[in-house]
Amino acid sequence: MLLAGLMSWSVPFAFAIAALITGRLGNEWVALSRRYAMVAWVILGLGNILGAWWAYHVLGWGGYWGWDPVEDVALMPWLVGTAFIHSIQMQERRGMLKAWNIALIMVAFFLSIFGTFVVRSGILASVHAFALSAIGPYFLTFLAAAIVGSLVLFFWRLPHLRSENQLDSLLSRESSFLINNLLFLGVVFAIFWGTIYPLVAEAVADQKVSVGPPYFKQVAGPLLGAVILLMGIGPLMPWRRASRDHLLNNFVVPVGGTVVGLLVLIVLGIRDPFAILGFGLCLFVLGTIVQEFARGTRARHSATGENYARSFVSLIRRNNRRYGGYIVHLAMLLIGAGVIGSQVYQQEVQATLAPGDSVTLAGYTVTANGTQTIMSPGLRSVDAVLTVNGQELRAEKQFFENFPQQPSTKVGLRSTPFEDLYVVLAGWEGDGPGAKVSLAIFVNPLVSWIWAGGVLLLLGTAVSLWSAAAPARQRVLAPTRGAAIGVTA
Amino acid sequence: VSLSPARFVLRAAVALALLTVLAIPALAHADALDDGVRRVALQLQCPVCEGQSAADSPSGLAADMRAVIRAKLAAGESDQQILDYFVASYGDSILSEPPKRGISLGVWLGPVIGVPLGLIALVLLLRTWRRPAPVPPVPADQLDPEVAAEFGRFRQEVSQ
Q1: For A282-330, what is each residue's pLDDT tens digit?
Q2: Residue predicted with more confidence, A52 or B31
Q3: What is the mean pLDDT of residues A419-424?
Q4: What is the pTM of this model?
Q5: Chain A within 8 Å of B111 (Cβ-Cβ)?
Q6: For residue A29, which of A16, A38, A14 has the smallest C-alpha distance?
C-alpha cells in the first residue's frame, strides 16, 4: 500500500515532465494530473494510516506513530502532495503558481523515490524495516538522475511558466493557499531535516546523534496546529479579496460555537492546555464546515423547494469537488482529535499478576487466569487469559517456527468509540492456569477516531473525484490522450 | 562489550535489587514507581534497537535500563540525575530529545531558521505580487494634447 502510494506519484510526475518536454504548459496537464495526484494522495494517505494501524495492533507498544524514519519518509510526500492539491487550484482558477506547482510535483516524486530508497536500503534504522537488499546504489543513481534531469527541463521551460494574474489582497483565498503551502513545506522540511540529521552528523562530524519523537512533536506539532486553523479560515475566504462584512458574516457562528464547545469540554474535565488548544482548533474548523453544509442545503432548499435531506444530497452531488473537500477536512479533524486525545490522555500501568490477581486502570479491572499455549502448524502462541469487567480477553505472543527469537505480539484489544483498552503480554512465568503473567495495560482514548478518519478520507476523496468525472474526463482527456500514453508507456 | 569494574558492581547491585523487588508479591499493584520508570524511560532511546524508546522496547538491554531507572528512583535520585547518568555512559545520543547543545543543536536550528526564512520569502513574494492600487482615470481636459489627438482619431475609426 505504502509503496503503491509512493509509486503513484510517478503518474503526475510523468504528466508534469511531459508538459515540460512538449511545451504544452497550458491547463490541460493541470486538469489531468490533479486527478491522478489525488488518487496518489489518497493511496499514500491510506498507506500511512494502515502503517499506523499495523504498528498499533502488532508492535504492541501502546502507540501508533513513533516518528520512525520509515513513517517519516512516507509522510513527507503525502504532505507535499497535500500542498500540491491545494495550490493546483490557484493555477486552475487564477492561472497563478505554474512553476511552483511543477516544482511541488517534482519534490513529491523525489521524496517518494527517497522514501522507497530508505525503506528498502535500511540506511536508517527502523522498526518497519523489511527485506533489505542491495539495490541502494541503483536507487541513489536513479534519484540523482531524476533530480538533475527534471531541474534542467524545469529551468529550460521556466520563462513559459509565468503567472497570468497578480495577488489582489492579503485577505483572500489565494493567500490562504500560499500560507497552506508554506506550512506544509515547513513541516516537510522539519521532518526531512530531523530524519537525515543523524546521517549528516555522522558524515560531517563523525558523531552519533539520535533524533527522537520529542523533536518531531515539538517542531511539527505547532505547524500542524496552524494547518488546522487555516483549514477553518481558508475555505471561507473568497477568491481575490475579502471584505470586513464577509469575515464577520462567516466567522461569528464558528467562533461562538467553539467557545461554547470548549466550555462544555472544560466542564466535562478537559483541563490540559494542549488539549484545550487542539480541541478548540478542531471545534472551530468543525463549526465552519457544518456552517458551509447548512448554508448550502438551506440555499438549495429555498431555490428548488426540495426537502432538506434531498437538498443536502444534491448539494454534494452538484458541487462534489467542494463538498468532497470538506468531507476530507472532516476526516482530518477526526484524525486530529484522535491524535490529541490519545497523546494527552493515554494511561498506562504495568503489572505482574498471579492467577486471581487483578489490577485496575481507568475503570477497567483486569484479572489474570494464567496462560494457555496453542500449537498450530508453524506457529506456537501463548495467550494470557484475562477477565476484564467480567468478560474474557486474551493477549497473545506468537512464535513462528522459523523465527523463534522474534516473537510477534497480538494485542488484547477492547475498543469502544471513545477509548481502547489495550493489553500487551510482556512475559510470563510457568505455564497453564497457574502461570504468572506480566502485562502492560494501556487505555488509549479516541484512537478509533483515527481509523474512522481514514475511512472518511477515502469517502471524501471519492466524492471529490466522482460525478463530474464522466463528462469532464472526456472533455479533458481527448486532446491529450496521445501525449499522455506516449510518456507513461 | 567489556564492563568497567565499577559498572559491573553497579549492574550486579541493580540485578540484586530487581530480584528483591520481584520477590515482593505486592508488585501486582501499580505504584508511583512504575509511572516514574516509564516517565524517565520514555526520554531514553534503546541503544541496540531501532527507533524505540527504552520504555517501549522489548529488548533485554532496555529491560536492564528500566531496572537501573527503577533502582535509582527508589534510591531517591531525580529524573535529571538519572538522565545525566545515562548520558555519561552512552553519550548524548541516548537521549530521545536531542539536546540543544553540541552537534545536536544543528537539528533544532534547521526548522528554527528554515521556517522563518520561508515566511520572509513568502512575505517578500506577496509584496511584489500585490497589484498596485488602480490609477484614477485622468479627466479628458487634462490629457496630454498629443494623446488626446490620438485618442480622437481612434474613436473616429472605431465609430466608422
Answers
A1: 999 999 999 989 988 888 888 888 888 888 888 888 888 889 889 999 9
A2: A52
A3: 91
A4: 0.79
A5: yes
A6: A16
ipTM, two decimals, is 0.72
Cβ within 8 Å, pair A210-B30: no
Among A179, A211, A217, pick the best mutation site for testing chain B contact (most B Cβ within 10 A).
A211
3-class secondary-structure state, position A419: strand
From B25, B58, B103, residue closest to A207, measured CB to CB = B103
H helices within A122-210, ranges in order?
A: 136-157, 173-205
3-state helix, strand, coil in chain B (%, to 5): 70, 5, 30
Amino acid at A81: G
Confidence (pLDDT) at A328: 92
**pLDDT tens figures, A199-247:** 888 788 877 788 888 889 888 888 999 999 988 888 888 777 777 777 7
Beta strand A408-410 with A347-353 is unpaired
Which amino acid is it at B12? A
- Note the helical H segments in A158-272: 173-205, 213-233, 244-268
A168 with B131: Cβ contact below 8 A: yes
Question: What is the spatial distance between Cα A87 and Cα A135, in angstroms, rounded to a whole number?
Answer: 35
Q: How many residues does chain B have?
A: 160
Q: Does B108 touch chain A (CB under 8 A)?
A: yes
Question: Chain-centre distance of CA A415, in angstroms?
Answer: 22
What is residue B131's predicted lDDT score, i.e. its pLDDT?
58
CA distance B114 to chain A (A): 8
Per the listing, cell 545536536 goes with B104
Choose among A80, A237, A238, A105: nearest CA to A161: A105
Question: Nearest Cα to A114, choosing from A79, A136, A143, A134?
Answer: A143
Pairing of strands A358-361, A347-353: unpaired
